[in-house]
Amino acid sequence: MTAPAYPTPATLQASTATGTAYGGAALAWAPSAEIWIALQPGAAAYDQLEGLRPVRIETASATARDDPRAAPGQQLLAGDDANPWRVLAVERANPRPGAMTLRLDRTA
Can you list the alpha helix ranges (DSSP code H) found in the chain? Predict the structure, then answer.
């Protein structure tokens, strides 16, 4: 059994794309929700494409009060950590009604 995580303040960020003068798009992240999470670290693995340096991928899950603004594809900044987590999935009513579990990953 793992020890319970301490509540940590976190910011969910949604992406916004704006057109550039060259016909492309610039991606920016804007805060969409402030939540408190209990972050549980998961496994770490290395992903390597042929001829390139291996990249460390960390996984985690975070439990929080359910927030309808949470969605896959967002970023999560937890506490003072400057390296954002990518939200892969949002499991509502997990582990109980009124709560949600976020499935996360990031490159280290």
Answer: none
Can the peptide bond before residue 7 be classed as cis, meaning omega within 30 degrees of 0?
no
d(CA 74, CA 104): 10
| Cα gap 25→67, rounded to integer Å | 29
The yes/no answer on whether domain 8-107 falls in CATH 2.40.10.270 is: yes
Q: Could you tell me if 46 and 56 are in contact, meaning their C-beta atoms sit under 8 angstroms apart?
A: yes
Do the beta carbons of residue 51 and residue 58 sit within 8 Å? no
If the chain, 108 residues long, is cut into consecutive pieces of 10 residues, what is the mean pLDDT of each piece? 70 93 92 95 88 90 96 94 95 93 94
Domain ranges of the chain: 8-107
> How far, in Å, CA of 15 to CA of 37, rounded?
21
Q: What is the DSSP letter of 66?
A: -
Amino acid, res. 35:
I
